[in-house]
Write a structure and sequence with these properties.
RTT106/SPT16-like_middle_dom; PH-domain like; nine-stranded mixed sheet; 31% helix; RTT106/SSRP1_HistChap/FACT; nucleosome binding; four-stranded antiparallel sheet; alpha+beta; histone binding
């Protein structure tokens, strides 16, 4: 009889109380004849929750602003032609779960605790790939989601500046990277971000209701377990994590001493965020809009506003849909200590460095004539002699300019001393005093002292 138990009903009925659900599973295992009773109790619990949710919605509609239902995706297809309705319909369809996580803290597109679900592939699902979706734990409605086949990038990144170690899983669907425009007729799903702690997967369960802690190894955490489960579902891409081989910031984590920081703090306009330099591209988050620059979309990278402590990083992108259109996005106020690592990353992946391009130098430095075009504007990439970076060239040119100024400096133009050869402060003060108001090179101090000495001799 235990084989006929509908465990999905049990999970939904007792999902808010993990301890009680475990007791129900134990009771069913010891007394299988009571399984149908527990199923009825679980169904009744779900009905009560639905009634409460409906009544709450009605009160809001009568006594206050109505609750808005979030759009699952932006369908740019022609509604008369039906759009891509199968993609959207599959989100709400009942499907077997591969795994789900209770009380998942989502940061995007909503800041809310929801039930994270990953469904298995079915013939009815779009492209037979299943879905990743978020379900309201009270009303049981699907808040948002994305088909597995529509996911383009999955990133697992540490959360910076937190006392407790945490990780963000970032799901970036097609045309949702903030860089690539969506073609006409495409359904665009929103990026999804949820946060997991650094610890054993206590709230993760398999589709059968089995706790992930029972099937996972003792060393597995939320991070490693979800990476493994998502990689099993993702056939066209994999979960990408930061690596020391790509980039590590020399700025230590102030909140967690001893840990390496894989992020760089930067501003896009007035919005503060974090840059991550990954094996597949450059990511900027965690505020809307998210940006992910894959290597195929990057036209060039350049450094601007190079100061003693900070510099700006400009990323120029060119879309495959419109090759003639180049868009440049600037990230400002990056700590100067991060430059060597960023520059090594750019050279490693052979990204074009356009810091000293002719157009940029003419615009920024107002250089004209042969000097701007012939002497300094020839190198537009990182293929110069010795592979010297453009920021290093800028520093070298500044040093050369300072050396030229020192060579042109004539110490005799400020006047000469009294010939004593002393460099003490007293001689300098006497020299300055003696030259006040004169301007003809006479030593007035010596003249005054000499006249006083003559007067003394005459008196004697």
């Amino acid at each position: 009889m235990s084989g006929t138990v509908d465990y999905s009903v049990i999970d939904r009925g007792f999902e808010d109380n993990l301890r009680l659900r475990k007791l129900v599973y134990s009771a069913i295992a010891s007394t299988p004849q009571h399984a149908s009773l527990f199923e009825d109790i679980a169904r009744y619990t779900c009905e009560i929750r639905n009634r409460v949710a409906v009544s709450t919605t009605q009160v809001s509609a009568d006594g206050g602003p109505a609750q808005k239902k979030r759009k699952l995706a932006k369908d740019t297809a022609d509604p008369a032609a039906g759009g891509n309705s199968p993609l959207l319909a599959g989100l709400n369809a009942d499907a077997e779960l591969q795994f789900y996580t209770q009380d998942t803290s989502f940061a995007m597109p909503q800041r809310k605790k929801l039930l994270l679900e990953v469904t298995r592939s079915t013939e009815a699902s779009a492209a037979g790939s299943g879905y990743l979706r978020a379900r309201n734990q009270v009303s049981k409605e699907i808040e948002f989601g994305v088909p597995i086949s529509e996911i383009q990038h999955v990133l697992c990144l540490p959360v910076p500046e937190k006392t407790q170690r945490q990780f963000n899983f970032c799901i970036i669907p097609k045309y949702a990277d903030g860089v690539t425009p969506a073609p006409a007729g495409a359904t665009v799903f929103e990026p999804i971000i949820w946060t997991v702690p650094d610890g054993p997967p206590r709230t993760v369960f398999l589709g059968s209701g089995t706790s992930a802690m029972e099937s996972a190894s003792l060393a597995e955490t939320y991070e490693s377990y979800m990476q493994r489960m998502l990689n099993e579902r993702l056939k066209h891409t994999k979960v990408i994590c930061p690596s020391e081989k790509e980039f590590v910031s020399p700025v230590p984590e102030a909140h967690r001493k001893g840990e390496k920081a894989y992020h760089v703090k930067a501003f896009r306009g007035s919005k503060e965020g974090f840059l991550f330099f990954l094996s597949t591209g450059i990511f900027f988050g965690y505020k809307k809009p998210l940006l992910f620059f894959s290597f195929d979309d990057i036209e060039s990278i350049s450094y601007t506003s190079v100061l003693q402590r900070t510099f700006n990083l400009n990323v120029a992108t060119r879309s495959a849909a419109d090759p003639d259109k180049v868009e440049e996005i600037e990230f400002s106020m990056i700590d100067q200590s991060n430059h060597p690592g960023i520059d090594a990353y750019i050279q490693k992946h052979q990204l074009q460095d356009a810091s000293l391009a002719v157009a940029r130098r003419a615009k920024k430095l107002n250089i004209n004539g042969a000097k701007g075009g012939d002497e300094e504007g020839g190198n537009t990439g990182n293929g110069g002699e010795g592979e010297e970076s453009e920021l290093q060239k800028a520093h070298r040119e500044l040093e050369d300019q300072e050396e030229e100024e020192e060579e042109d400096y004539d110490p005799g133009s400020d006047g000469e001393s009294d010939g004593s050869g002393s460099s003490s402060e007293e001689d300098s003060d006497a020299y300055e005093y003696g030259n006040q108001g004169g301007g003809d090179g006479r030593n007035l101090v010596q003249e005054e002292l000499g006249s006083e000495a003559e007067d003394v001799d005459i008196d004697e």
